[in-house]
Every structure is written in C-alpha cells, then in structure tokens.
Amino acid sequence: MITKYFSSVLWQVDMNRNVKPKFVSCSIAALAAALMFSPFLMGQASFDAHDLSGVWQFAPGGGGQGPGDNFPPLTAWGQASYDANKPGYGPRAAPGGNDPILKCSPIGVPRILFVIWPFEIIHIPGRILMFFEGQHTIREIWMDGRKLPDDPDPRWYGYSVGRWEGDTLVVETAGFNDKTWLGAQGQPHSEEMRTIERYRRVDHTTIQFNLTIDDPKTYTKTWEAEPRVIKLKPGVEIPESFCVASEE
C-alpha cells in the first residue's frame, strides 16, 4: 500500500515540471517520515485528546489509596486532626479504626480517584460526569464556562468546574466538608481545601494525571501529589456496588 502511494506521488510530481528535483526529494523524505511514525502504521489506535469517554482505572503503584505519603508539614490544626484519625491498616493502623468509609460515609474527592475500582467518564452537553463503582457514585464537573462559587455549601465531593487548556482537562474543586480523608492513612483536610486535577490523554489507552491540593488550614504549603497513570479498561462495565452498614 505504501509503495503504491509513493508511486502515485512520484507520478504526480513527474507531471509537474515546475517542481525541482531537490524539493521533490525533501518532500518524499518528509512524507515517508510522517507515514512511518503515524499511529496507523505503528499499530496505535487514533484518539481525540478532548474525548475521555470510557471506563478507566488508576494503574497500580504511586500513592495507593490516596495522593501519596509525601504530604507537606502539617499545621497545628492539621496535626491534631491527623493524630485523631485512626486508619484500619498500614503503619498507623489502630484497633477500632475510625476511617469514615467503614461507616459507609461517602469516600470524597480526591480519595475516590485512587481506590481500586474502575470509573467511567461520560461527556454530556455542559458537563462531564464521573461514574464510580465505589458506592455507585456520580460526580459532576461543570464545563459550561462557569466559575467556582464564592462560598458554596460544603459537600462530600465539593463543587467542580472544568476547562480545556490545550489537550489537558483542568478541573478545579472547592466547597468541601471536612468529613472525609484524603487517603487511607488518615491524611486530613479542612473546608478550606481546593484541588486542581489535570488529565492529559497521551495515547488511546493512557491518561496522565496530576493533582494539586491547597489547604492552608491543614498544610503549611501546597501539596503536589505524586503523578499517576490512568489506563483504559475496554469492555469493562461498572457493576452495582454499594456500602451497606452492618446490622451488628
């Protein structure tokens, strides 16, 4: 197919006597390079960087169930909150842990992004929806140009607005309550927390993810979480999954 295509190009060039041989040579070389590294010939599926539709899952590694262990120094308020949080496992595990999800409380953002369950991204007019297997949760990201409210009512998942910066989806969230943990190790946050998520689709099956957390009441400086990779899960459906409180 490539040989036939080159023959066609050469025939058209030969018919155009105004084209100089040197220019023809350079043009053919450029064309060959473009074809050689095209997604089609390299066996890669084409993709639209602005279309994140599909079922995705965070790749193993990184910070586990949370933004990571490299969190900044805590304020006095943050340290007191951290000490009061008793994880159910890990180096700080304590008998009778008080992780909010053990009582079926909403997982919250950003923690729900890092759990082991898959999630689906759905584009609809004016919004992007994230449908998580965890507690069968739907998160709403407004894409209609609105700004974050000045004083939104506190929510488990905050209030999110998004925009495109080139090929990167940027999601800003504020208006959190302080009832969730950032990760399974008990990292706290306050109602002052603001987060910025960046999603950049680098190929058909891969999204690069970056998270910035700003919470001056809890941490002494901005937290740049460990970069993560999100992988497409073709053919996966989101099952029904609910947390049901024990009757005991």
User: What can be said about the biggest beta sheet?
Assistant: 9 strands, mixed, barrel
Strand order of the largest sheet: 1-2-3-4-5-6-7-8-10
The secondary structure category is alpha+beta
Annotation, overall tally of beta strands: 10
What is the count of DSSP helices, taking H or I runs of 4+ residues? 4
Strand content: 25-35%
Provide mean pLDDT, rounded.
85
- The coarse overall form would be globular
Could you estimate the helical fraction of the residues in percent?
A: 10-25%
- Give me the strand/helix succession: HHEHHEEEEEEEEE
Spans where pLDDT lies below 50 across 5 or more residues: 1-24
Number of domains: 2
Q: State the distance separating the first and last CA atoms.
A: 69 Å
Q: What can you tell me about this protein's structure?
A:
With 248 residues, this protein is of the alpha+beta class. It folds into 2 domains: 2-36; 54-232, no CATH class. It contains 4 helices and 10 strands, in the order ααβααβββββββββ. The chain has helices spanning 2-15, 21-36, 76-84, 111-114; strands at 54-58, 119-124, 127-132, 137-142, 159-165, 168-174, 194-203, 206-214, 223-224, 228-232. The chain has a 9-stranded mixed beta barrel with strand order 1-2-3-4-5-6-7-8-10. The N and C termini lie far apart (69 Å). Residues 1-24 have low confidence and may be disordered.
